């Protein structure tokens, strides 16, 4: 990873009654990071309109490690850790001031929204995803418990 894949300012309405980022908004920010990965790998808005295909998150594991204060400028780093014919596994890391605040590991499927069901990635998309693949971080694949 050469640099953060998403920069996101925390909005005032995302702050909860404890004075920090509410848990739902961690997932929102990670969703923006998935969108950014889709753009970088050829699955942006034009692709979705042209093909009727998109990524659907079917499983996610979020770890809330540190609080995020109001008005923070978050960095999210994304790594592709596995690519299958119809699926991709991603790990997102949320950083602030050099401190890891949260992680999210997701499994996403490539879905044909017109005809229904999963379909293989086009060769060019698969090649971009595979070219960016990295080793999974130590926390990936962990179970809750």
Structural commentary:
This protein has 145 residues and is of the alpha+beta class. The chain has helices spanning 23-40, 45-51, 123-131, and strands at residues 6-9, 53-64, 73-83, 87-96, 99-112. The protein has a five-stranded antiparallel sheet with strand order 1-3-4-5-2. The longest helix has 18 residues, at 23-40. It is globular. The mean pLDDT is 95.
Attribute tags:
globular; 5-stranded antiparallel beta sheet; single chain; 145 residues; alpha+beta
Instruction: Note the gap between the termini.
Output: 30 Å
Order of helices and strands: EHHEEEEH
Number of beta-strand segments? 5
Overall, the morphology is globular
Estimate the helix proportion, in percent.
10-25%
Radius of gyration: 16 Å
Low-confidence stretches: none
Order of strands across the main sheet = 1-3-4-5-2
Describe the main β-sheet briefly. 5 strands, antiparallel
Number of helices: 3
Q: Mean of residue pLDDT?
A: 95
What structural category characterises the helix and strand content? alpha+beta
Strand content: 35-45%
Walk me through the topology.
Elements: E1 6-9, H1 23-40, H2 45-51, E2 53-64, E3 73-83, E4 87-96, E5 99-112, H3 123-131
Antiparallel strand pairs: 1-3, 2-5, 3-4, 4-5
Q: Summary?
A:
This protein has 145 residues and is an alpha+beta fold. It contains 3 helices and 5 strands, in the order βααββββα.
């Amino acid at each position: 990873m050469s640099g953060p894949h998403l920069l996101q300012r925390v909005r005032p309405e995302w702050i909860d009654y404890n004075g920090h980022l509410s848990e739902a908004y961690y997932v929102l920010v990670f969703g923006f990071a998935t969108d950014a990965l889709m753009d970088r790998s050829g699955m942006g808005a034009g692709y979705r309109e042209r093909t009727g295909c998109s990524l659907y998150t079917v499983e996610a594991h979020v770890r809330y490690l540190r609080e995020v204060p109001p008005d923070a400028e978050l960095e999210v780093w994304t790594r592709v850790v596995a690519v299958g014919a119809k699926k991709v596994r991603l790990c997102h890391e949320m950083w602030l001031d050099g401190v890891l605040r949260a992680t999210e590991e997701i499994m996403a499927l490539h879905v044909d929204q017109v005809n229904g069901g999963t379909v293989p990635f086009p060769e060019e998309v698969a090649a971009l995803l595979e070219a960016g693949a990295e080793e999974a971080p130590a926390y990936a694949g962990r179970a809750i418990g």
